[in-house]
Design brief:
heterodimer, A: 6-stranded mixed beta sheet, B: mainly beta, 7-stranded mixed beta sheet, 4-stranded antiparallel beta sheet, 58% strand
């Protein structure tokens, strides 16, 4: 079945460092791909998404490119801030009804000043 | 704009007691609704989803149940809580025919 694999955390970086969080997926069709962010004690917020191969999603300085050839959707940011400390979830959806969402286990990011 | 509410925010319940968590969505009609559980150190597990009033699909067999008595209200219930029911419960919604899900603030449940 479909699955999403994320790099295990925690990822600890200094402020202004470059961030990469790896995400790979397996799917039978052509899924849409998502990154969600969860700040401590809160629900998930949509960070960015891409719906087809070679699309790049971007928001708040974060970027991810849908790579069909490598089945990947890695999250990147050029310069992280302390406020970016959170748990990041990669997810895929193959159904327009949404109930086919598959989430990765999440990667915790800790940014130190 | 659309908003999603969950309550209570935090709940501590003894084993064997009943449970009722509520989720409501404002600013949209006929949304798809979802209940997820997030256990400590684990990802999100889809528990139930609903595409309309009275229509509930269960993804994981357990002692929990869900109901949708109104278009924008989704309730998660249990008759007798287990220790293993502890976790962070998230409600989400999506527009009919669209994939993106929007999450509520969550309810933290501790069963003692």
């Amino acid at each position: 079945g479909d699955s999403v694999t994320q790099m295990e955390g925690p990822v600890t970086l200094s402020e202004e460092a470059f961030l990469t969080i790896n995400c790979t997926y397996t799917a039978t069709g052509y899924p849409s791909l998502f990154w969600y962010v969860q700040y401590p004690g809160e629900g998930l917020q949509l960070l960015l998404k891409a719906t087809k191969a070679d699309d790049k999603g971007s928001n708040k300085g974060f970027e991810a490119t849908y790579r069909k050839e490598t089945t990947s959707f890695h999250l990147e940011k050029g310069s992280v801030q302390v406020s970016d400390s959170a748990v990041y979830f990669c997810a895929l959806s193959e159904g327009r009804q949404g109930f086919s969402f598959i989430f990765g286990k999440g990667t915790r990011l800790l940014v130190k000043p | 704009s659309q908003t999603i509410h969950q309550w209570p925010a935090t709940l501590v319940q003894p084993v064997g007691s009943p449970l009722s968590l509520e989720c409501t969505v404002e600013g949209t009609s006929n949304p798809n609704l979802y209940w997820y559980r997030q256990a400590a150190g684990r990802g999100l597990q889809l528990l139930f989803y609903s595409v309309g009033i009275g229509q509930i699909s269960s993804e994981v067999p357990q002692n929990l149940s869900a109901s949708r008595p109104q278009d924008r209200q989704f309730i998660l219930s249990s008759k007798k809580l287990l220790l293993s029911d502890s976790g962070f419960y998230l409600c989400a919604w999506s527009r009919t025919g669209q994939e993106t899900q929007y999450f509520g603030p969550g309810t933290r449940l501790l069963v003692l």
